[in-house]
Amino acid sequence: MTKMKAVGLYNHLPIDNQESLVDLEIEKPRPTKQDLLVRVEAIGMNPVDSKVRESNGEKLTEPKILGWDVSGIVEEVGPECTLFQPGDKVYYAGDITRQGGNSEFHLVDERIVGTKPESLSFAEAAALPLTTITAYESLFDRLAISSDSDTNKGKTILIIGAAGGVGSIATQLAKKVGMTVIGTTSRPETKEWVLNLGADATINHYESFTSQLQELGFSSVDYILCLNATQKHWGNMAEAIAPQGKICSIVESDEPLDLTLLKNKSVSFVWEFMFTRSMFQTEDMINQHYLLNEVADSIDQNELKTTLNKRLTPINAENVKAAHRLLESGAAIGKIVIEKFN
């Protein structure tokens, strides 16, 4: 039985508890069916890691491994694999219903894996998959924004929480297809980050959206992508969205949302959850493979760039805890990545 290193948990605990995340040695898995066995080189951190760690679950008899952003090298392939072979460099977000990627080796269905951008290091690539899939699906699947720049001429999108991981890539993707992008920020450093990614303007998400938009010359916006506190911003969004506009959110609400606020404007509201395709094994699950490859090509052509902003080494419980603390502080800009097992 071959063992491998991993970082995981047996109890769902606050991050300051010494047992919240621990270093482990567990059995190295073997690929079957359409699975790849990937040698993990770098992992990206996301709010979902903290949410799963904190979830009110009972004590586990088997360790739970977190981590839904990976870049690495294919070690072995299952008998039904056709997209990859050993030695291929890949990046992906994985499947929340399975063990995560905070381990030396990781199993993942090849249909949700992309070829790593050649121009990026493993750490730079690991910053991208989950947020890229979320941003891409939000813009082009859920909001049904066209990929044609001429069609989008004059179209506006407001991205709430534009300096975070998803906002950082969504800003770039929206600009790439010719949209006017307005991001919400609240600090000088986040405003600078968002403008450097290509946003046309920023507003403060602690103040009225409509009055700030009017100061910029916009009476409303055609699309809103909400990446932070849906319930908190609901009234502002309903007021700022244009008639027949569309709103997408990725953040669950603790309270029911008053959809009647959208009725008179005939506004559409839709959720985005990037694990939907893998969770339900949808027929179009392979679309995540295609979109990751498309984004990799755009990166290699200098049309998009990595959102990595903080790098830690090596991959161990201490560094994963540090990343969770930073995420939970709400002060993170861009993405946090941890690379290499000792």
TrEMBL record:
Where's the Enoyl reductase (ER) domain? 19-338
The UniProt GO MF terms for this protein read: oxidoreductase activity; RNA binding; zinc ion binding
| InterPro entries in the cross-refs | ADH-like_N, ADH_Zn_typ-1, ER, GroES-like_sf, NAD(P)-bd_dom_sf, Quin_OxRdtase/zeta-crystal_CS, Zinc-ADH_QOR/CCCR
- Keyword Cell inner membrane in the entry? The reply is no
Compartment annotation: Cytoplasm
Per its UniProt record, what CDD domains does this chain match?
Answer: AL_MDR
Keyword set includes Oxidoreductase: yes
Q: Tell me, how does this one assemble?
A: Homotetramer.
Full protein name = Zinc-type alcohol dehydrogenase-like protein
Which species expresses this protein natively? Planococcus donghaensis
